[in-house]
Amino acid sequence: MKTVPVTLRDMIELGMYGENWQTFIDKYDERFNAITIDGFSFAPISLSYQFQQMLAKVHATVLPTYVDPDSEGYEMPLGSIEGKTGNIPTQKLFYSVNRNTVREQMQLAQRFGELALDDEMADVMYGLLDEGTNGLYQAFVNALNHQRHQVVSTGKFTINATNNPRGIKGVTIGFNMPDANHDILTGEQRWWTDADREVEGKAADPLVYLKNRVKHIRRVLHYSGPLRMEISQDLWDDMLGHSKVQNKVGNFVYRNVSSDAVRSDLIEFDVDEVYKEAIRKMIKVDEIVVRETYSFVCKPGVDENGEPDLIEERIDNFDPCNIAFIPTGKLGDIQGVQPLSMGYDADKVAYAMSNRLLVEQEDIPRTHSINVNGEMSQLCVPNAIRHMFISTVAVKPKQEAAGKTTKKG
Questions:
Q1: Domain positions in the chain
Q2: Interval 234-264: pLDDT, tens
Q3: How confident is the model at residue 71 (pLDDT cuts 50, 70, 90)?
Q4: Dihedral pair phi/psi, residue 349, rounded to 5°
Q5: Around Cβ 86, how many Cβ atoms within 10 Å?
Q6: Organism's domain of life (predicted)?
Q7: CB–CB of 153/324 below 8 Å?
Q8: What pLDDT sits at residue 298?
Q9: Counting Cβ atoms within 10 Å, is residue 92 exposed (0-12), middle (13-18) or buried (19+)?
Q10: What is the CATH number of domain 8-177+331-384?
Q11: Does 405 have pLDDT greater than 70?
Q12: What are phi and psi of 90, to 5 degrees?
């Protein structure tokens, strides 16, 4: 039987069902049509890698790897030096279609040639491309959310060994938050004095602190607009377990119940929404948002046998030691550039997210692979930074310091 040789490129094109690369990528814009980065909207694309922060004043609303623009990204598995304020960092990530991921299909193609390029093969290849491209797109959306939560909960964006273990480190992008906007509790004023959050600070009273903090923001720091409190899920859960919080919320919600013991029993089993609404009224904010949001990064480590391997580690998007008080509504813009593609055939280059995300195919003959590379240079820039406030109320919890890891698939 005579067969026509089949290449990995033929198999990739089969999985695209006759569509060109840009049309194939356009589907993911439709799938992710409602990209929402709370408080931030996309600004028009810039021609330079510089962001411009327009400071608004209100009177009486596993992440890809940050690399040097000329460096390669890192593969996505299927399945202080102060940085110059004004620079937008570049992120890259890729997935690879190679002999290992399509071994069975390659064997069929080698044996039967073009006869192997049937509907079943097309479905398999489409599934592989769809999984990889969907994951690539989602990774860059997650990166914007990570930026947003870091900016809101810390007032800056830092690229370090935690969120960028295989890329550049030691870069902090500051956004000119006034020092007075960040309050740091120390000593016995901290809500807990240990990393396990078991030893309550002797002078700590979380709800009294939050109420006074809001009062300070209004009276001393002169912010008079709507105010939202944001807090991580872990810190919220720990706060609700604080002895003084349970007592005060119980007294507030069940003030018509005369027995302290009965009030304590009733509030102990109430749902979060009861606590949230009671605390919102007690501290006088317009809204409380609890952020349960995490990302995963790939980092060098060891597997269960002690052998070197890449491991996936979960990291917090929202700082678990901080509470943020921010205006409701718009906080800023997502600013960036259209990545440049040079040296690639036009039919292997596509753009997504209104030209903000570059997705290109790269043939790697040495490894018999085709890489699908993603690149984006976008940054969440807060324009309302003068009216964003942070309170650090605890030390980093032990489980956060240790991290949670899993072996890369």
A1: 8-177+331-384
A2: 999 999 999 899 888 877 877 767 666 656 6
A3: confident
A4: -120, 135
A5: 14
A6: Bacteria
A7: yes
A8: 86
A9: buried
A10: 3.15.30
A11: no
A12: -105, 135
